[in-house]
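Quiz preparation item.
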């Protein structure tokens, strides 16, 4: 079974930065894409960013493009989300996920989910 553990969330003022990490363990899944999704209270879970772990290609939601950067480590079992210029509307629970195929931009094509980490941006 695959396990995903997120970390790095917290409380930050508007304009600040946070770096989220997602560490995968369990059976090998190095050929599958990974991504970040977020869910704010009263809203559906939405796509944030993803990365192909074979080609290195990336995808971003329009709302975060230019502010957030997704990356991977050398072993390809850990992904990061560097979040800069944070705004109040970025407040949400952020989830790491493993996808079935590339491109990975929809929740319905996720195979595994982490437990989530809370990001709160104060204005």
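Solution:
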């Amino acid at each position: 079974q695959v396990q995903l553990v997120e970390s790095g969330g917290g409380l930050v003022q508007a304009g600040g930065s946070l770096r989220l990490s997602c560490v995968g363990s369990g059976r090998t899944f190095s050929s599958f894409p990974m991504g970040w999704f977020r869910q704010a209270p009263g809203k559906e879970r939405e796509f944030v960013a993803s990365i192909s772990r074979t080609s290195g290609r990336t995808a971003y939601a329009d709302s975060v493009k230019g502010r957030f950067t997704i990356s991977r480590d050398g072993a390809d079992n850990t992904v990061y989300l560097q979040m800069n210029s944070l705004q109040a509307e970025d407040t949400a629970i952020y989830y790491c996920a493993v996808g079935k195929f590339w491109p990975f931009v929809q929740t319905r094509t996720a195979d595994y989910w982490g437990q989530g980490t809370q990001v709160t941006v104060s204005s």
